[in-house]
């Protein structure tokens, strides 16, 4: 079946998405309604902006654009993080592209756009028999930057993390209300609200206190592990087998 070419433009940039006639009108309307993104400086960013635009209005169109994105950049055969690195994007652009790419993570029709164990080539770090890897968890920082890291992860990888973080956040909050622990949590432990509404987070002095920082640092590290095993397309158990040791470190 012949496909129609829909062009999406922003400033001096343009990308082309091939679509079957059945969905051409829908995609054309979305392209026409797409506002100019003057901050976009590369084609991959333009794809990402348009993906987010489509996601608000039309899931089928979003899937079509995601598949076009994957074809253009060789994803998922090439890991999206490698693709982003090759384009030498700045921090904001990296966040934009990764967030847009993972938008449809929980949609079954989009699974072919993401990595799985059948076609995933593990990183070279895991492929070498001469290297013995150790995972280290724990630590207590001198600042509340760990919450910034958690927000970044949750913003970029929310479809991968939402259920897990929601569950753990509810557990931590319930524990903080225990009569034996409550005196240490005078400003609560509403992690989910602190992640989604930065202005609601308590002051740094409270965030770096041991009863608050230690469980939240653990949560951030578990978020990193969750993102790692999901984006690699391997189970937590398979990921753990690549490590010869796991240690908890408390400073």
UniProtKB/TrEMBL annotation:
Top-level taxon of the source organism: Eukaryota
Native species: Coemansia guatemalensis
Protein name stated in the entry: Fatty acid synthase subunit beta N-terminal domain-containing protein
Keywords: Transferase
GO molecular function per UniProt: transferase activity
Every Fatty acid synthase subunit beta N-terminal domain range: 22-102
Pfam families linked to this entry: FAS_N
């Amino acid at each position: 079946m012949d496909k129609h070419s829909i062009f999406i433009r922003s400033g001096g940039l343009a990308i082309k998405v091939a679509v079957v006639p059945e969905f051409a009108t829908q995609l054309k309307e979305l392209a026409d309604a797409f506002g100019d993104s003057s901050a976009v400086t590369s084609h991959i960013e333009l794809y990402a902006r348009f993906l987010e635009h489509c996601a608000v209005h039309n899931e089928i169109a979003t899937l079509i654009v995601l598949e076009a994105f994957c074809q253009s950049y060789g994803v998922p055969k090439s890991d999206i993080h490698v693709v982003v690195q090759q384009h030498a994007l700045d921090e904001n652009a990296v966040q934009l592209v990764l967030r847009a790419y993972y938008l449809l993570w929980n949609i079954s029709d989009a699974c072919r756009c993401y990595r799985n164990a059948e076609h995933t080539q593990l990183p070279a770090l895991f492929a070498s028999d001469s290297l013995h890897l150790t995972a280290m968890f724990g630590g207590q920082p001198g600042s509340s930057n760990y919450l910034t890291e958690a927000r970044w992860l949750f913003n970029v990888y929310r479809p991968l993390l939402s259920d897990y973080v929601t569950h753990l956040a509810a557990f931590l909050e319930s524990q903080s209300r225990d009569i034996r622990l409550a005196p240490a949590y005078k400003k609560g432990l509403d992690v989910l609200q602190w992640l989604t509404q930065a202005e609601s987070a308590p002051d740094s002095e409270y965030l770096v206190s041991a009863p608050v920082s230690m469980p939240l640092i653990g949560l951030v590290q578990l978020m990193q592990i969750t993102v790692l095993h999901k984006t690699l397309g391997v189970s937590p158990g398979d990921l753990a087998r690549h490590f010869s040791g796991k240690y908890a470190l408390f400073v």
